[in-house]
């Protein structure tokens, strides 16, 4: 019976809203990081196999080096938001427990209120950052969608001489000519390969993951703001209860003193 009551008590203080936001954040970050990493690898393969892009020397920053840098950034994003999700869950547990145990031994401190406010500010910054990541991820989705559409309509564009030039996207310098035209053998090989279709759909999944992370950040902001409001009201109630308790104690002491004085006078 004791274990059952303990489990019921733990479920009572479980921050379900924070738990839902954490699951959504982890799912979105995992989808973005996993699919984004593989999509970048597929992009590097397409650039090397069909656009004949070669890796520049170590001291030169080229498109392949930037892809490698973005991969390491993805590793950092995955690790950082794994830790941040845990911190937000812990904050949710403490805030929920502080509100539920307002009349118990656990008291809400000024440090706890400052931590809650700090998490609100930090979550808002991450919300803006994920909005930027979502906008940035939509660019390769749009580019690959155009290429994928050309490949799906090869018979329509058979007479036209359309070329995909990397100089238009700023991936190579103006002096380098790296392009694939619709009538060339490389274009047909690229369209028939699995890399193009897989990379396009991986970028779409990465965009969906970034959108899920944005929704999770919005959900976190609502949860943290609600917790902040509850904590603020709970602090006011806590101060009121402390003042009321002191006044009752003072009245009790006064009555006790008067009763002793009357007893001494009668004696």
UniProtKB/TrEMBL annotation:
<dbReference type="GO" id="GO:0031175">
    <property type="term" value="P:neuron projection development"/>
</dbReference>
<comment type="similarity">
    <text>Belongs to the myelin proteolipid protein family.</text>
</comment>
<protein>
    <recommendedName>
        <fullName>Neuronal membrane glycoprotein M6-a</fullName>
    </recommendedName>
</protein>
<dbReference type="GO" id="GO:0043197">
    <property type="term" value="C:dendritic spine"/>
</dbReference>
<keyword id="KW-0472">Membrane</keyword>
<feature type="transmembrane region" description="Helical">
    <location>
        <begin position="72"/>
        <end position="94"/>
    </location>
</feature>
<keyword id="KW-0812">Transmembrane</keyword>
<dbReference type="GO" id="GO:0043025">
    <property type="term" value="C:neuronal cell body"/>
</dbReference>
<dbReference type="GO" id="GO:0044295">
    <property type="term" value="C:axonal growth cone"/>
</dbReference>
<feature type="transmembrane region" description="Helical">
    <location>
        <begin position="115"/>
        <end position="136"/>
    </location>
</feature>
<dbReference type="InterPro" id="IPR001614">
    <property type="entry name" value="Myelin_PLP"/>
</dbReference>
<keyword id="KW-1133">Transmembrane helix</keyword>
<comment type="subunit">
    <text>Interacts with OPRM1. Interacts with palmitoyltransferase ZDHHC17/HIP14; the interaction leads to palmitoylation of GPM6A.</text>
</comment>
<dbReference type="InterPro" id="IPR018237">
    <property type="entry name" value="Myelin_PLP_CS"/>
</dbReference>
<dbReference type="GO" id="GO:0030175">
    <property type="term" value="C:filopodium"/>
</dbReference>
<feature type="transmembrane region" description="Helical">
    <location>
        <begin position="12"/>
        <end position="32"/>
    </location>
</feature>
<dbReference type="Pfam" id="PF01275">
    <property type="entry name" value="Myelin_PLP"/>
</dbReference>
<feature type="transmembrane region" description="Helical">
    <location>
        <begin position="200"/>
        <end position="230"/>
    </location>
</feature>
<dbReference type="GO" id="GO:0005886">
    <property type="term" value="C:plasma membrane"/>
</dbReference>
